[in-house]
């Protein structure tokens, strides 16, 4: 603990270091992202966050609680950014989809974060005992897919897509492309390579959306 002298030269104790929740979550999220939920032990989380066990348990209750908080932090950053792209009603649909794909490439290859998508990578090594957490992650991924589908349905209403477009299937296809790029990033694909995949996808957009 920090020590300091008062005016009379007496040694007094400094204030205890304040618990930085955002910093702890950032570090915990990175560990879960890099190694997966199950392989990341509580002792590794304590060491990696530089937090006392008592403080970590008092704030989050358990490893599961810390993981759920890390999910919320991830969604507050990347989920909101994704939604903001999809809600650009003033842009033509192809530009919106391309922005979504290229933003995903940037996120998946950010040198300051582990590669790929947290929501995909964090499920690595989950056992049957983690079924509740797995289901929670699945619901979040389904919610992300629903956002894409809602964007497509809106564009059908505006006449940018044919009335008989299967928005659910098209949305699933777009999300699968994004998830595939996440796996490629985890396997070492760089930004240029993933950007090339986006180029190929967008070159086929007219055929993909034609009915």
TrEMBL record:
It holds the Pfam family TetR_C_13. GO terms for molecular function: DNA binding. The keyword Transcription regulation applies. InterPro entries: Homeodomain-like_sf, HTH_TetR, Tet_transcr_reg_TetR-rel_C_sf, TetR_C. Residues 41-60 bind DNA. Keywords: DNA-binding, Transcription, Transcription regulation. Residues 18-78 form the HTH tetR-type domain. PROSITE patterns: HTH_TETR_2. This is HTH tetR-type domain-containing protein. It comes from Chania multitudinisentens RB-25. The lineage of its organism: Bacteria, Pseudomonadati, Pseudomonadota, Gammaproteobacteria, Enterobacterales.
């Amino acid at each position: 603990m920090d020590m300091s002298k008062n005016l009379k030269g007496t040694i007094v104790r400094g204030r205890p270091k304040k618990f930085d929740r955002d910093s702890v979550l950032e570090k915990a999220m990175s560990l879960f992202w890099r190694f997966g939920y199950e392989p990341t032990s509580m002792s590794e989380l304590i060491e990696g966050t530089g937090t006392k066990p008592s403080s970590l348990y008092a704030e989050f209750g358990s490893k599961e609680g810390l993981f759920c908080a890390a999910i919320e932090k991830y969604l507050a950053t990347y989920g909101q950014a994704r939604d903001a792209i999809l809600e650009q009603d003033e842009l033509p649909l192809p530009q919106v989809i391309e922005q979504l794909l290229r933003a995903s490439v940037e996120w998946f290859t950010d040198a300051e974060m582990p590669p790929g998508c947290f929501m995909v990578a964090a499920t690595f090594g989950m056992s049957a005992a983690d079924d509740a957490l797995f289901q929670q992650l699945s619901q979040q991924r389904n919610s992300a897919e629903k956002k894409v589908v809602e964007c497509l349905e809106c564009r059908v209403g505006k006449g940018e897509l044919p009335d008989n477009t299967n928005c659910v299937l098209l949305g699933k296809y777009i999300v699968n492309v994004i998830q595939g790029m996440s796996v490629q990033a985890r396997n070492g694909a760089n930004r240029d390579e993933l950007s090339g995949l986006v180029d190929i996808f967008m070159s086929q957009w007219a055929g993909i959306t034609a009915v």
